[in-house]
């Protein structure tokens, strides 16, 4: 990374879809299909209903993506020396790759949700809203925006929100395996804590670190950063706050069985929705 100085003119943002977008769009669906053959003779997998088999493979793909995205985000944000670099105008060589991977994952997972709605008559409302909002922000960042601000450090912090995904899906798996007691509750409490830290507190941390660099109160950050960053960070707080509320409501409800609110459609074949 080349340090940006106040006297230098930052290079404009290069507008293009990274190749990793296409890697995710083709690679993750292929992995989803391969998992069906990998688990073909697994007794637990065969005991699941068609909808749950579909969800299990989808959640395994999501967990793999979350692990890769979290690893890359940690490398960018915490294993690179940003002490002498500008948090807005400096870039990182890995940011475009992981951003493209995230966009490709969101695109194929949205298609997967729509397919699930058509086949099984059920879909996650929060997931769809989250994916559409996040995809819009990434498309704007990668393709539409052409200004000098890169914001790679903050992009990495946003992508760290993926860190809560493995526990989210582990909770679902525990419920399908009828795991109860301390193990389930340890996952539930860990999930709530990690979800809050990665998806809500992280937004405050981004504001704070930017304000700290400029020796200003943290709440002034919203008026210093580009307008679309303020809009996007506000949307993250609203969406993830609503998701956390729904998650807590279902965890502490005796009848809660899903990690996000779902809408049930009238299935073509009633047996497939079970």
Q: What's this entry about, in short?
A:
Keywords: Membrane, Transmembrane, Transmembrane helix. 64% of the residues lie in helices and 2% in strands.
Structural write-up:
It comes from Basidiobolus meristosporus CBS 931.73. Keywords: Membrane, Transmembrane, Transmembrane helix. A two-stranded antiparallel ribbon has the order 1-2. It has nine helices and two strands. It starts with 18 loop residues before the first helix and ends in a 10-residue tail after the last strand. It has 274 residues and is mainly alpha-helical. The protein has one domain (19-256).
What is the total domain count?
A: 1
- Categorize the overall geometry: globular
Contiguous helical run count: 9
Largest sheet: 2 strands, antiparallel
Mean pLDDT: 84
Please trace the helix and strand order, writing H or E for each element. HHHHEHHHHHE
How many beta-strand segments?
2
Report how far the terminal alpha carbons are from each other.
Answer: 52 Å
Strand percentage, roughly? under 5%
Q: Approximately how much helix is present in the residues?
A: 55-70%
Q: pLDDT under 50 segments (min length 5)?
A: 2-9, 255-261
What's the gyration radius in Å? 20 Å
Class inferred from helices and paired strands: mainly alpha
Strand order of the largest sheet: 1-2
InterPro entries: TLC-dom (IPR006634), TLCD (IPR050846)
Protein name: TLC domain-containing protein
Transmembrane segments: 20-39, 60-78, 127-147, 153-174, 186-210, 225-247
Keywords: Membrane, Transmembrane, Transmembrane helix
């Amino acid at each position: 990374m080349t340090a940006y100085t106040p006297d230098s003119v930052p290079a404009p943002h290069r507008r293009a879809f990274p190749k990793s977008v296409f890697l995710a769009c083709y690679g993750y669906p292929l992995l989803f299909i391969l998992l069906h053959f990998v688990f073909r003779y697994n007794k637990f997998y065969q005991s699941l209903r068609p909808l749950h088999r579909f969800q299990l493979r989808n959640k395994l793909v999501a967990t793999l993506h979350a692990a890769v995205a979290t690893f890359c985000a940690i490398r960018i944000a915490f294993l690179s020396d940003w002490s002498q670099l500008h948090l807005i105008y400096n870039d990182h060589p890995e940011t475009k790759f992981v951003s493209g991977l995230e966009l490709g994952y969101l695109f194929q997972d949205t298609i997967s949700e729509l397919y699930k709605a058509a086949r099984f008559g059920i879909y996650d409302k929060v997931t769809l809203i989250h994916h559409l909002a996040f995809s819009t922000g990434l498309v704007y960042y990668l393709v539409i925006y052409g200004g000098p601000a890169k914001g790679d450090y903050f992009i990495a912090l946003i992508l760290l929100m993926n860190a809560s995904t493995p526990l989210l899906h582990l909770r679902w798996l525990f419920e399908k395996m009828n795991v109860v007691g301390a193990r389930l509750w340890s996952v539930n409490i860990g999930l709530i804590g990690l979800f809050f830290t990665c998806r809500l507190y992280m937004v405050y941390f981004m504001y704070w670190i930017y304000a700290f660099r400029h020796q200003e109160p943290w709440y002034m950050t919203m008026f210093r950063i580009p307008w679309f960053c303020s809009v996007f960070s506000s949307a993250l707080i609203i969406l993830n706050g609503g998701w956390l509320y729904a998650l807590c409501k279902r965890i502490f409800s005796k009848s809660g069985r899903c990690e996000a609110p779902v809408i049930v459609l009238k299935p073509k074949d009633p047996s497939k929705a079970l």
